[in-house]
Design a protein that fits this description.
402 residues; alpha+beta; Peroxisomal Thiolase, Chain A, domain 1; six-stranded mixed β-sheet; 12 helices; 14 strands; 20% strand
Length: 402
């Protein structure tokens, strides 16, 4: 690609200035008991300290989350205060695409010259999600019925379908067989546990202490909780919730945060522990498919993006996706005639869970680390964004190797 074709030619992600919490599954840790915005701000402060990045180099903060949390009205300035910094910034959300869209928006901030170093901080806590009462004067009652955030996760108001139903529709459209979905699921778990045993996750997942408001120790978040061991037999024995969809072949709700920096080329060399590594933004695409066909939308976004870039799937060094269902990967594999075992090396959200906001941020960090190990190359990241929207982004890593 020519420099003119790059999405943000002046923006960079400095290698090694990122980090993520581990992702405990819904209600499996003390993270369910704390304010997630405060936790995320304090966690980013801790991660920047470990990475030896002075937090006073930041001049802006983009945060992303999808679940309401106490003090959310104050958004990025409040979270920045929890980092011990007084920074301007804002909050954004786009369902499951939030973690990637926040990085793209940070790149735009740098490209326009508005800021030099933007912190991207994404987080969510699905545990104990809030319940709201919504005023509605058009109804015969003064208020509508109490609504839980989980109602939105499981019900698309435009179609009245659940995400599982979307996966079933797409599975039937593309002829995805149950055995294929189970084989993909088994492979993903094997990839994750291999990465865990090798120490790959410890390069960016940071153990974090949890404290209550009085400063009392509540525990540590030092592993991805709630991940079960699976086998070919255990997957085959699971009940089919919809066509080729089982409990084993779908992700689970979880809690967590992830962060990284976006800055200029010169600043990236200054901040990174390996300044010879250059990470560039190349492009992004979004599409919307027909209603309730979410699992096909990410692949459509990939097709649009690669056509624009003049590249092929086989040109990619690393392919990572948010796969709430194994069906997502099966459809991508069929559409692009791509070996699904060659993607999502070292883990994916199908296995370690889906806290919404930080999901794609962690996947991006994983993908960039993988590309560095390979000595560089293109990194393709894609995922869904509720119901029928897909997003894809392309990054280029130059340099690396062990």
């Amino acid at each position: 690609m020519s420099n003119e074709a790059r999405m943000f030619p002046d923006a960079r992600i400095p290698y090694g200035t990122w980090g993520s919490s581990f992702f405990p599954a819904w209600q499996t840790s003390a993270l369910a008991e704390v304010n997630i915005g405060q936790f995320a701000g304090e966690a980013m402060n801790r991660i920047l300290g470990i990475r030896k990045v002075r937090k006073d180099v930041l001049d802006y903060l983009v945060i992303g989350s999808t679940i309401p949390w106490h003090w959310k009205f104050w958004t990025a300035p409040m979270v920045a205060s929890c980092m011990g910094q007084r920074l301007p910034g804002y909050h954004m959300e786009q369902a499951c695409a939030t973690g990637l869209q926040a990085v793209v928006l940070a790149g735009a901030q740098v490209q326009t010259g508005d800021t030099d170093v933007v912190g991207v901080l994404t987080f969510d806590r699905t545990s104990d999600s809030p319940v709201g009462v919504f005023p509605e004067r058009r109804s015969y009652e003064r208020t509508q019925a109490i609504s839980d955030v989980w109602d939105n996760f499981g019900f698309d108001p435009a179609t009245e379908n659940s995400m599982i139903t979307c996966a079933g529709f797409a599975s039937r459209k593309y002829g995805i067989e149950r055995q294929m979905a189970d084989e993909i699921t088994l492979c993903r778990y094997e990839q994750y546990f291999k990465a865990k045993e090798s120490g790959f996750l410890d390069r960016f997942c940071v153990p974090l202490e949890l404290l209550n408001v009085q400063g009392k120790h509540l525990g540590w978040i030092d592993e991805d909780l709630g991940i079960r061991k699976v086998s070919r037999d255990s997957l085959a024995a699971m009940y089919e919730l919809d066509t080729s969809v089982t409990a084993g072949g779908q992700t689970h709700a979880s809690d967590g945060m992830a962060c990284l920096l976006v800055t200029t080329a010169d600043k990236a060399k200054e901040l990174s522990p390996r300044p010879e590594i250059d990470i560039r933004f190349l492009g992004k695409a979004e599409v919307r498919t027909q209603p309730s066909l979410m699992p096909e939308a990410p692949g459509m976004a990939v097709g649009k993006l690669l056509d624009r870039a003049g590249l092929k799937v086989t040109d990619m060094a690393v392919i990572k996706d948010h796969n709430p269902f194994a069906v997502n990967d099966a459809i991508f594999s069929k559409v692009f005639d791509y070996d699904w075992s060659r993607m999502n090396n070292n883990g994916c959200s199908l296995v370690w869970g889906h806290p919404q906001g930080p999901t794609l941020t962690r996947l991006l960090i994983e993908g960039l680390e993988e590309a560095v190990d390979l000595g560089g190359g293109y990194v393709l990241l894609f995922g869904c964004a509720a119901g029928d929207v897909g997003i894809a982004a392309l990054f280029e890593v130059k340099g690396g190797g062990n």
